[in-house]
Amino acid sequence: MGRPDEIKPGLVQDHHATEILYFRISSEAECDGCGSEGDDGRSVGELLLPQYALATGGLAKDHRPLITFPDNNNFHLLSASEYRRLLLYLTSVPSLLEAEMGFHIIIDRRKDRWNSIKAVLIRISEFFPGVIHSVYVLRPASFLQKALSEVSSKLFKEEFRFRVLVCSCIEELYEHFDRSQLTPDLGGELQYSHSEWIQQRIALEKFSTLMKDISSKLDEFMHAIVDCDMGNDPTQTKELLDCQETRYKALKTELAAATTQGEELLTQVRKPNLTYNIISHVAAVERLLVQLEETERQFDNFWQKHSTKLNHWLKFRTFLLNFKQMQATLDNHLKAACDMTEVGETAVRVESLIQEANDFEKLCNCDLDTASSVIDDGEKLMKDPLSSVDHIESKCEELRRTSALLIDKIQKRNLLLTKARELMDRIDKANEWCATGVEILAGEGGLIAVDKLLEDAKSFGLTAPEPFRDMLLQTATQETRALVAQVAQRVEDVWLMVSVKRASLQRAAAKPARPVQSVPPQSASVPPQPEQNSILL
Questions:
Q1: Distance from C-alpha of 507 to C-alpha of 470, rounded to nearest angstrom
Q2: What angle (nearest 5°) sits at the alpha carbon of residue 331, between those of residues 352 and 400?
Q3: Alpha carbon 327 to chain centroid, angstroms
Q4: Most buried of 207, 340, 452, 475, CB within 10 angstroms?
């Protein structure tokens, strides 16, 4: 039996055996103004007005709720189906805990006949939607009916499955009920207003119906998102997450609006002139609000778990997509690096290849940084308890391996081109040296020029032809081997000729110079005078 102040939790499972909580707010009957016409007879709202039976909110001393059949001489106008509809509603008014304890029933027939008591008891025995603890009968007060009841009550007490206590006066009720729990017509102090009670039940039923609608929406939403395909494409998953999050926020807005409406209703029933039955409505609204709060809390918990799972799936699929893209990119770079075998046959070509290699390295470095970020994302993802660590780790390791291979290829390519440039530099300097040597050999350059030429050869590693040839061949490739051999031969030829010239110049410099005899001019033109002639003078 559902009741307007009760939210019933339940469990459902998806095909992955994931348990989620959902909530069903049900009301078997609705009050006038928000109810609907039954299949047979009058609606609940119409049945409440004549006061065939009442749920005033009173409790027995054992705290069980009370249902009263007042002495209005109109119970015979109630059909069997209408009776069932009315009792279904009235027994749903108390809280679930109170209803499970069972009900006390008071049948007031002090102004009626004995047969009317029996008619009510038979109806109750045929149908009552709850546990009956005791039935208290206020028997007819007229002399004849009292006499009949004294005789008949002994006979019919054994006919019913519930305990029947026949009271000759209302004072006997006080043994089981406090007067504050009984209405004035039963000698009590509970100032019950039936019209006020109905109006507040209408408000309660409307609020209950609102909560029932929200509950159905929550139930439908949670079943839908649990069973949904999360997709393998990150774009599709992101759109799904955004769509579900929008729906979640809309339902949260409805829950907030319902809470506001419930708080307003609580303010309305909390009026200064409260009677006990109104207090029971306050308690009913408070229970609804507490249950609504619990509903929202569990809905938030469900969404937190689901959105976490969906966000993780989005990150995982994004990681896999990024992995595939980066793996394909790095594989293409690796293939391109493997195809880069040319080293160039001229210095200009080598410089061009070095520039291409630098540009390629910059491009690769950008993608290698991206690959490193993908690996970082994978490592963070592996820390998530929802992750398949082995699967993600294998992808990260594959990216690391490909990245390392590409870096190694780039480094080897750069080293090869660096050596090629050094080779070309030596070849250019060797050619220049050979040209200078030919000029010295063809001219009148002396020993100083030759020694300077041999000294300059050391700047590009030439100290002797054979070691120089070996050095060039060590860095030569298949493409440059012929060029290296040609240059080495030329260097050897020039070196040999220069060495011969140097030796010749050194020998010439080592020969001593012949002495030259000088003749005075006068000795050649005037012969010397005989010494005797000078003596004679």
A1: 32
A2: 110
A3: 25
A4: 207
